[in-house]
Write a structure and sequence with these properties.
This protein has helices spanning 18-68, 71-75, and strands at 84-89, 101-110, 123-133, 145-155. The protein has 164 residues and is of the alpha+beta class. It has one domain (18-155). The longest helix has 51 residues, at 18-68.
Length: 164
């Protein structure tokens, strides 16, 4: 028998070292943290998008109300176009008005600046503003106030004056 050959009965065992195991666990932990962070950020973006969409729906609803009013109704702000309003949004139960995001809104009707005096009483600038916060129930220390605003102009005789 030659001296350089191994005996066939000798078995060599190999395993991972402790350093390789620690590095693998560390990489797995980083990947899981990134995965859960991605899920959390995704859900937060969806929540903010829902809140923004609901605010836009409220603004459009108020502007459609303005579109349906005549000139006397627009001037009577206490009866038809109230200066303040509120609305709720709870995706799990929108009919309860007891939970969810609370939207506080304001409507202002002013004469637009810079108009000639002869036309100043025949035109109004209507601005609808909605405010809400990022927390729906308990007061928190990290409150972020969000807002959306929409503006339109209303003329007494419409866009074309066909009246004699």
């Amino acid at each position: 028998m030659k001296t350089n050959e191994r005996e066939p009965s000798a078995i060599t065992y190999s395993a991972y070292t402790i350093v390789e195991v620690v590095v693998a666990v560390f990489v797995l932990a980083i990947m899981l943290i990134a995965l859960y962070g991605g899920f959390s950020a995704g859900f937060a973006v969806v929540q903010v998008s829902r809140e923004n969409l609901r605010a836009t729906q409220i603004l459009v609803q108020k502007m459609e109300t303005v579109r349906l009013l005549n000139w006397r109704q627009i001037l009577d702000t206490n009866k038809f176009l109230t200066p303040t309003f509120s609305d709720w949004y709870d995706p799990l139960g929108t009919n309860t008005h007891s939970a969810g995001i609370f939207y506080q809104g304001f409507i202002s009707t002013n004469g637009p600046p810079g108009l000639p005096a002869s036309y100043a009483n025949n035109m109004r600038s209507i601005t609808v503003t909605v405010f809400w916060t990022n927390y729906s129930h308990k007061p928190r220390t990290n409150v972020i106030v969000r807002s959306r605003q929409m503006q339109t102009y209303v003329a007494r005789y419409g866009m074309q004056n066909y009246m004699q």
